[in-house]
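Here's a chain:
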Amino acid sequence: MQPSLASGDPTPRARVQDEIRRDIIFGKLPAGTRITESSLAAKYGISRVPVREALRALEVEGFVESKPFAGSTVSEIPVDDADDLFAVREALEAATARRAARRAAAQFSAGGPDTQWWETRRALAAILDEGDQAVANGQVELLPELNIRFHLGVAELSRSASLTALLRQISGKIEWLYASDVDSRGIRSWAEHRGIMAAIDAGNAEAAEQGMAAHVHGSRSGYLSRFKEKDASPATPMEPSGGQPADTRA
């Protein structure tokens, strides 16, 4: 997972925290996997101290569970919290898109954007191009990370430290849900980013806000409906054709 577009080089703890989180989100460390400081230190080529600090932070974020004398394990995907997470993100992202558009309008009316704005905007352009290429190549597995980077980039454009920090706190869990079901809506959802970016560039705060809200709401509705379908799937053995209950003895 990438650090903030404007944050510079992360600390060792932040770097390994991002890498562990990334590996959890994309299934390299599946739910239920037992993890230790020593194994992670060897895996990421770092000392145990930043790994220990990273695990504590990831426990607060909900990616890791730790129990006394039992060690740490990767948490389950937060399906039960999905509705609330999406609701919070919808409000946050609508606000960041609105602020980003207003800032763009102010930048251009002042004679031209500053260097920081241009750096972030160029990074977003590159992310959109990468995502379009991934879609064209059928590489949907690349979209969750690019999606994270796009949405955090819009937050960077808004230059709201509070909104960006709040978004960072929940973005990982949202992308965990996204990555677990990216084949269903990933391509259609990705195409919506260009319209949001166009509204921001035009300084149209209302269109940017509405576009982002609709974008996140569409993801929310789609993912929740699919998770409900999975929860509603039969949990008991199928009956044989004769109508007698299946023998479930070992």
Notes: Residues 1-8, 235-250 have pLDDT under 50 and may be disordered. The longest strand covers residues 64-67. The chain is about 70% helix and 5% strand.
